[in-house]
Amino acid sequence: MVTHRGSLQKQAVQMPASDKLEELEMLNLEIQNHRPLREMVYEELKMQILTGAIPPGTRMMEVELAREIGVSRTPIREAIRKLEKEGLVTIEPRRGAYASQITTEDMIEILEVRQNMEGLAAYFAASRMKPEQLSELKQTSARYNAAVTEGNMDDMIKYDTKFHRIIVDSCNNKILFQMIEQLQELVLRFRYIYYDDFKRAENMPDEHKAILDAIERNDADAAREAADVHIDRLKELVIREGVQNWHA
User: Fold this and answer.
1) Residue 46 is part of a domain; what is its CATH number?
2) Domain boundaries, position 31
3) Are residues 143 and 111 in the same domain?
4) Rg of the chain's alpha carbons, rounded to an integer?
């Protein structure tokens, strides 16, 4: 689900934003949540960027973000610097920090890597998936199809993500799992842009079914091919429409 701005504000102890009270503010909030304030703020801002609550190209104003989240500027500043290292924020000298743009080239590169890794995952899943995982995959596929029919974007993203996660989990390959996990944050950001127009999801149920059917038949080659076709069609869509037009 989308993490909305101000979700930390309900948890925060509201204190004047002064240097004298800043340290006490951080201590009180950390005691309440048993987690460092800087970590909570970082995760909040990161999720806002990944889910599009902070759209690409948006200026990250420290004062405004601090007020909305209910903290001082220091953890906001630290979070922005950390997000810059991860490529989610761009800091321009004398201009400030901005949520990084997503280009068509960026998305094609992500999909190229995803195609190879998830194709391999589907290949392994065809021979390694347990019966209970197959049952869960079928249920998830059905819930995804219902979400597409209803035009429920949050559920489409939820069950699309879960569908592919079950396949990866069933591979029983820690290295592949770790590599795909590293890619998931970028894929999540793509999904929130992609599903902004429900019509883009019209063919997805059939593509998921092709993957599911091949896995159920224990046909590893067909599973990999179906996964490849799935990502190929996404790449074709990105090239045809251009990511910039999706969040313009």
Assistant:
1) 1.10.10.10
2) 19-99
3) yes
4) 20
Q: Quote the crossing angle between the two packed helices 104-128 and 220-241, to the nearest 10°.
A: 170
Task: Please give the chain's pLDDT, 248 residues, in tens.
Answer: 334 444 454 443 344 444 434 444 444 444 445 678 889 999 999 999 988 899 989 999 999 999 999 999 999 999 999 999 988 999 998 899 999 988 888 889 989 999 999 999 999 999 999 999 999 999 999 999 999 999 898 899 899 999 999 999 999 999 999 999 888 888 888 888 777 765 677 889 999 999 999 999 999 999 999 999 999 998 888 888 776 555 54
Count of the separate structural domains present in the chain? 2
Shared-domain flag, residues 56 and 127: no
- Smallest Cα–Cα separation from 184: which of 90, 103, 118? 118
- Residue that finishes a domain, picked among 99, 117, 148: 99
pTM above 0.90, yes or no: no
Looking up tokens 């204190």 gives 15
| Shared domain check, 165 and 45 | no
